[in-house]
């Protein structure tokens, strides 16, 4: 009971540190429940035939990929919040807290956040679910007389899955945080390099292997089978993006080492400062790059996948069938869900990470750096994060668009406009840069002495 009370007091006193995890859980539970409500609608609304199948596909396919992204996001934000508390955890160890007690505290915090977030997510889930069904009504895929139903499947899945995924993520994070000694925890708090664990590498390789397998199946087994190739190629970009996002700490270390020279030359004194800071913050930068990878990889892959299918249909002189319209709707829903969720995740992660640097920025200013140089530092860091995320996301999208182009059009070159790609890249860059700039400016309003002592 003492450990649980400590967890609850920590939640109350460190709301900023837990904001990223809470928002990921809140949005995640809303997404899961919204799509799960399609199963309630199919069962209670009297849907039959093609309409029932459409509702079930919406729930299982789109909701399933949403679930995967949500679990990844919750795990990432939990890892970030615990990393930011390395000094606090080290202090608790030094005064006698055991690894088991610390693990129970971290898991208790995650469980409390998950339950609160899932309960608050019920109302937006209900609204989103109604919006999804209205879209299916408007496109004629589900009869207008089929009403929206919410429960018991939707709340059970939303609350249950969020609770299990949050506590599992907390257990994984707590195990690593409590395994090292207090002195090592303090060193980790100062460096924030975020080493890539063996378990993380194993999962990353697994995701990339599955994505490669899906791409190979698309080119071989699904070649010449028309739009059925979407069933395998459409998953590959998401799987590859998650795999690369898991490898983000290692990728970011290589990227910062490679870009240190150009950053110094282009940024002058601010570039020297940025290059020095980035070397010891690769872990935090990797946490920000992960949602960029997911956003770019899934958005580019799905948009060009649909563009290739549209071009293949037009080249054959055919008009879209009802099934093709259904799939196009699903693709648009996937894009919308991924864009919204990863954009919020990106903004949320950047704000949480920048807020944690209040003391660092205060000390930097006391050491002689001007507010303009600190803003320049944040801008250069965000440019490296965005650039690395865009490159990795583009690589992930290739797992979908090239195999599908070969299977559907016998072409390595994807259909679609270059402006579509540039639009996705620009949105990712603007979100990253604007958020980092705004969060840094807010911190700079605090006097340097006050910030350094916080």
Automatic annotation (TrEMBL):
User: What's the domain of life for this entry?
Assistant: Bacteria
| Topology class, membrane | Multi-pass membrane protein
Query: What InterPro entries would the database entry show?
Result: ABC3_permease_C (IPR003838), Macrolide_Exporter_MacB (IPR050250)
Q: Which family does it belong to?
A: Belongs to the ABC-4 integral membrane protein family.
| Protein name as catalogued | ABC transporter permease
Q: Name one GO cellular component term.
A: plasma membrane
Q: Where is the ABC3 transporter permease C-terminal domain?
A: 65-179, 333-446
Output the Gene Ontology terms for molecular function.
transmembrane transporter activity
The organism's lineage is: Bacteria, Bacillati, Actinomycetota, Actinomycetes, Streptosporangiales
In which compartments does the protein localize? Cell membrane
Keywords assigned by UniProt, alphabetized? Cell membrane, Membrane, Transmembrane, Transmembrane helix
Q: Which organism is it from?
A: Actinomadura livida
Name the predominant localization: membrane
Transmembrane portions of the chain: 16-37, 57-82, 102-129, 149-172, 201-222, 234-252, 284-305, 332-353, 374-406, 418-439
